[in-house]
Amino acid sequence: AQSVTQPDIHITVSEGASLELRCNYSYGATPYLFWYVQSPGQGLQLLLKYFSGDTLVQGIKGFEAEFKRSQSSFNLRKPSVHWSDAAEYFCAVGARAGGSYIPTFGRGTSLIVHP
Amino acid sequence: EAGVAQSPRYKIIEKRQSVAFWCNPISGHATLYWYQQILGQGPKLLIQFQNNGVVDDSQLPKDRFSAERLKGVDSTLKIQPAKLEDSAVYLCASSLGGYSGNTIYFGEGSWLTVV
Question: What is the per-residue pLDDT across A32-51, written as a single tens digit (0 to 9) for each?
Answer without folding.
Answer: 999 999 998 888 999 999 98
